[in-house]
Specification:
The complex is a heterodimer of chains A (205) and B (166). With 205 residues, chain A is of the alpha+beta class. Chain A has one domain. Chain A is built from ten helices and five strands; from the N terminus they run H-H-E-E-E-E-H-E-H-H-H-H-H-H-H. A three-stranded antiparallel sheet of chain A has the order 1-2-5. Chain A is elongated and about 70 Å long. Chain B is 77% helix and 7% strand. Chain B has a three-stranded antiparallel sheet, covered by helices on one side. In chain B, helix 2 packs across helix 4. Chain B is elongated, with a radius of gyration of 18 Å. The two termini of chain B are 28 Å apart. Classes of the chains: A alpha+beta (205), B mainly alpha (166). The interface between A and B is medium-sized, with 35 and 32 residues.
Chain lengths: 205, 166
Amino acid sequence: MPEQHPFRQFLLLAFALLLPCFAVWSAASAWLAIPAIGFTNMILTGWLPDFVAGVYVQGSKALLVTQFGELDGRLVPANQAGDTIAYLLDHRILSYSMPFYTALHFATPGEKRPGSFFVGLVVLYALLVTGMVSLSLKDMMVNLGTQFLQHPTAAVPPANLIALVYQFNVLILPTLAPVLLWAWQSRNTPLLQQMIEPLTREGTP
Amino acid sequence: MARFVTVFLVIMVGLFSLEMMKPVQDHLVVPFTGLLASLSAALITPFDSSVTAYGKVLQFTDSGFAVSIEAGCNGIEATIVLIAAVIAFPAPWKTRLAAITLGFLAVQTLNLARIITLFYLGNWNIDVFTWVHLYLWPALIMLDVLIVFLVYLRYLATDTAKAANA
């Protein structure tokens, strides 16, 4: 029987699968994000109706349309300005977690729980929505400034919290979440079982 | 396992919060980012006379294309994830410190490769540059962190097996 090298196999397959997975995602990312844009629209228009008129699909990106416009260099309500300020959101800086996770998942030798791949995708999709909300909050904080942060009635989070949540949800989670999900789902595979043995011994006398 | 996950998350959130503090940015992150830019320039300029560097900017003298190496391009976030994972995993402290040092070098070596490849890609095609910069390289850097950590775990497992057989 040939000797098994799960680590070597994982390395080779992970690199081999990465580019094809990213290529498929790249082609599909615009329509893949449509439901996430819908959820983001629902959350933001429900939570911050004084600021967000809607979040829409705009080509391969999302468009965050605010309730503001610009008149003589000042921010005023959109109906007074006659135009509307909107920001383009690149959802792909969040959704690339999916091809990354896909490559890791299918590169791992051994049996995994049935359906675990789809569970992983659902978790990443939920993170895509929270990431888009975080991205929108950051854009409004940076561009609308005090009008956004010091609104008397709207429940706008403090600037430091928006910055922290943005850093975590947009800059860190898209790469970290796939790895954590993969590690959890692969903990019983031959690749990880032997390596994480000290953790499974924890708590035993 | 639960203890590992908890310690990992606590250390990671702590280090990320520390990284965001202004004194840490001013005295560590910004100078380190500048050092990376100088290192990238030092690696490129002996082989390519059409490249010039000033501060944290690398520029082609013929096309004018330039990249500025900013915070977020310095691999610090990836290093923080590695540090948190290594510290959270039970092992002798000497081994953990060696893993962090070697892991840091591995991440930064790949990060230098990332900066240099992006610089040349950007000069060739800005769309490809954007795609590789924003989507592909972050995944590759995190894959590097994962591989370094798995190599470390393999080393620990082999070491433990050797000690048991001795």
